[in-house]
Write a structure and sequence with these properties.
Structural class: alpha/beta
Shape: globular
Strand order of the largest sheet: 10-12-11-13-14-19-18-17-15-16
Order of helices and strands: EEEHEEEEHEHEHHEEHEHEHEHEEEEEH
Distance between the termini: 61 Å
Number of helices: 10
Length: about 375
């Protein structure tokens, strides 16, 4: 086991022990507070370009398995943990986390003071960093961290999106997934076109569990091509990077917003806000974890939510005549959801599909079904 250096752009350098692949990688260093779900985090395309710190101190104790992945491969740039469990134990485990990370070329380090690192990020904000098993020179590594690109201005959807449209097949669903209360009981099958900005598989599983037939399309798929498919609804997925940099997606959404019911999650929420004339901004250290409290302003109820985002929608920038704020974050008051006042269009910043995670917000998928059920578009 080799030493690993973690160097941050502010000059801070940590030394730990490698338990993943060897090499060197740069990225934005962030933290997530979930006590479980490291496999979901590692394979969530929204983490593309980021070196992820797990605040829960023991990681790897239940190994990995093929059912809990959210995409075809890990997307994080690197993984930082306090202590790695070298002897995983779980009846579902097919492989140890370290072996899986090495097989996919992901650098991982244990033995770093993750409490100190997390407190630092909370104080100064997310930082650019470099993980290296090959360069032990602190000054050299700090220079590399400073030279790496900032997250602001990056369009990372092109790296994680599919290359061609495809049909999602329900047999991929895990037997441990949350079941819909009335699967296939919505009167008919609804055809939903899913824009893949980095879509998580459990979003597709949830939509399919409610009886939707899904066609997943690349992030740059044109609005005309989507409408030619005559969908009943359009879904805007999660994804990585700066939403304001994905100009082509914003323009396509702008052309679709009055054509079909639309539901957006995470990056999809941000892109929809930009398409409607709003603005987004970068958060200091982002929201990442499984227990963020959100207030539903329509019902007054509090939802415990799973979150993973580094940018937020500026509520005051949204056109009040057209848009109604529906959800707000109780920790910092940031926007967590809105809906159009006239059109069947709505979105949330958090992840109602979380797996693992709370299921408080699964009702949003039912709302999407209801909007498609009552909408009568003029077919092309």
């Amino acid at each position: 086991m080799n030493d690993v250096k973690l160097a941050l752009e502010n000059g801070t350098v940590f030394t730990g022990t490698a338990f993943g692949a060897e090499g060197e990688i740069t990225g934005e260093v962030v933290f997530t507070t979930g006590m479980t779900g490291y496999q979901e985090v590692i394979t969530d395309p929204s983490y593309c370009g980021q070196i992820v710190t797990m605040t829960y101190p023991l990681i790897g104790n239940y190994g990995v398995n093929p059912s809990d992945v959210e995409s075809t491969r890990p997307w994080i740039s690197g993984l930082i943990v306090r202590e790695y469990c070298h002897t995983p134990s779980n009846f579902r485990a097919s492989e140890a986390l370290a072996d899986w990370l090495r097989r996919h070329g992901i650098i991982a380090v244990e033995g770093i003071d993750t409490r100190m690192l997390t407190r630092l990020i909370r104080e100064v904000g997310a930082l650019r960093g470099v993980l290296s098993t090959s360069d032990a020179d602190p000054e050299s590594l700090v220079r590399k961290a400073k030279a790496s690109p900032p997250m602001t201005g990056l369009d990372l959807t092109k790296q994680v999106t599919c290359h061609e449209p495809y049909t999602w097949n329900a047999p991929d669903a895990t037997p441990f997934a949350l079941q819909a209360p009335n699967p296939r009981g919505n009167g008919r099958e609804y055809h939903v076109v899913v824009y893949d900005y980095g879509v998580k598989r459990n979003i597709l599983r949830r939509l399919a569990s409610y009886g939707c037939r899904l066609t997943v399309v690349p992030s740059g798929f044109s609005a005309d091509e989507v409408l030619a498919m005559n969908p009943d609804g359009i879904f805007l997925s999660n994804g990585p990077g700066d939403p304001d940099a994905v100009k082509y997606a914003i323009e396509n959404i702008r052309r679709l917003v009055d054509k079909r019911p639309i539901f957006g999650i995470c990056l999809g929420h941000q892109l929809l806000a930009l398409a409607l004339g709003g603005k987004t901004y970068k958060l200091k250290f982002g929201h990442r974890g499984l227990n963020h409290p959100v207030k539903n302003l329509l019902t007054g109820e509090i939802e415990i939510t799973s979150q993973n985002h580094g940018f937020a929608v500026d509520s005051f920038s949204l056109p009040a005549a057209d848009v109604e704020i529906t959800h707000t974050n109780l920790n910092d008051g940031t926007n967590e959801g809105f809906r159009h006042r006239e059109l069947p269009v709505f979105c949330v910043q958090y992840h109602p599909e979380a797996s693992p995670g709370p299921h408080d917000s699964d009702y949003l998928f039912r709302e999407f079904i209801a909007r498609m059920k009552t909408y009568s578009p003029v077919r092309n």
